Amino acid sequence: MDKSPHKVQVSRRKFLSFQYRFIPVVLTAALLCATAASDQTYARTRARLQHIAVPQVLTREPSVTAEAACLIDVATGRILYAKQADKRMRIASLTKIITAWIAVRSGKLDRVVTVSAHAVRQEGSSVYLSAGEQQTLRNLLYAMMLRSGNDSAMAIAEFLGGNEQRFAAIMNQEVHKLGLTHSHFMNPHGLDHPEHYSTAHDMAVITAAALRIPLFRKIVGTKFYTIPWPNQKWDRKLRNKNKLLWMMTDADGVKTGYTRLSGRCLASSSTRAGRQVALIVLRDGNDWVDSARLLTYGLTAYERRNVVDLVHVRMRAPVRFGQQNTVPLKALGDISYVFHCDETAAVEMKIVKLKVLSAPVRKGQVAGYVAYYLHGQKLGEARLATAEAVKAKGLLGRLRDLFMH
What we know:
The chain folds into 3 domains: 1-49; 52-300, DD-peptidase/beta-lactamase superfamily (Beta-lactamase), CATH 3.40.710; 307-404, Sandwich (Peptidoglycan synthesis regulatory factor (PBP3), Domain 2). The protein has helices spanning 5-51, 95-104, 117-120, 137-147, 150-161, 164-177, 200-211, 214-220, 244-247, 287-300, 307-310, 395-404; strands at residues 68-73, 79-83, 112-114, 134-136, 224-227, 236-239, 251-259, 263-272, 275-282, 302-306, 316-320, 326-332, 336-340, 347-354, 357-358, 366-374, 377-386. It is an alpha+beta fold. The chain starts with a helix and ends with a helix. Helix 2 runs parallel beside helix 7 (200-211), helix 4 (137-147) packs antiparallel against helix 5 (150-161) and helix 5 packs across helix 6. The strands form 5 sheets. Strands 14-16-17-12-11-15 form a 6-stranded mixed β-sheet. Strands 2-1-9-8-7 form a 5-stranded antiparallel β-sheet, sandwiched between helices.
C-alpha cells in the first residue's frame, strides 16, 4: 500500500533531521582522518629529512631544485640568495601572507566576524566554517595561517574590505607601498587566477615586512591552536601544516602552498642568535630539504656586524689655537648590516665632511662624518668624533698663530 502524504512528509522530516545531525559527525570524522593522515605524512617527511642530513653550518650556496627562490635577512632586508627571483609565478596559498599582514595591522583582531555563505563555498583547504558562524578576526587568522583555510581567508577579506574585489585592491595598494611592482592579486587565498601572481623576490620582501610584526611572527610560529566550533561538543584543534616547525630547531614560520598549476610552494623562516632569515621557494618538489639547507646557509654563511667596527679610522682633524695642531678621530654609530663571511674586508670608507676645529676641543666633539660602502652600495654614515681633548694655547700663542696665518 502507498503511504499517505502525511506519513511521507513526516518521514522526510525525520530523514532531514537525521541528515543535519549526521553532517557534523561526518565533518569531524573527516578532520580526524585528515589529522591521522597528516601525522603519517609528518613522520615520513621527518624521516626523509633526517636521512638527508642538513649540516649545522653551510658557508657555500647549496644547490636547490626550486624553479625560483629568494632568501632575505628580515631585519636589514638584504637579499642573501636568489634564483630566478624576479620571474612571475603563481604563489598559491603564500598569498595568505599578504592577507594576514594586512589583518594584523588592522587593529580589529578581537572584533567578531560573521562568516558569509560565499566564504563557506570557497574551494580547497577549509576549516569547515558555517554560514552565519561567528569568530573573532584573531581566530580566523590562526585558522588561515595554520590550516590554510580558504574559507577563513575569504571571511577575513569580506570583513576588512567589504568584498573580495575591494580587499584585493587593498592588497595591491599595500604591496605597491613597499616598492614592489611585479605582483598582482585577485583574491585573498591564492586559488589560481591568470591575473594573480608574484615573484620569489616580492614575496620575500613582503614576508620579511610581516615578520617584523610580533603578532604575525607569533601566529606563523604556532604549532597548535584551538578555536571554538559553535553548536558542537568540541572545539576545532588546529595543527600547523608547516613541517619545518618540527624538523628544524630554529624554524619559526611561515606558510605552505600548493595548487595543481603552482606546484609546491613554501615560505619559511628561521632564527638563530637573535637573527632571522626568511625564504621563498616556488615550484619546488623538494621544498622541505631545500628550505632547510637555504635557511641554514643564510644563518651561518652570513653574520650581522656593526659596519663602524669593521674599518679602523686613521685620521686626524686640524685644530686652530690648540696646544697641538691636530686631534685623532674615531667613528661613532651603529650601522647594522649582514655580511657574508668572506666580504667584510671589502668595506670601504669615505670622508663626507671634516671640520677645522678651534681649541679648546672636547673629547667626543663631532668633527665630521664618514660614509661606508660595500661593492659601491652605500651602507650608511657615522659621526667622526675627537678621541681626546685639546687645550687652547695662551694669549701669546694665539696671537702668534693669528700673525703667522
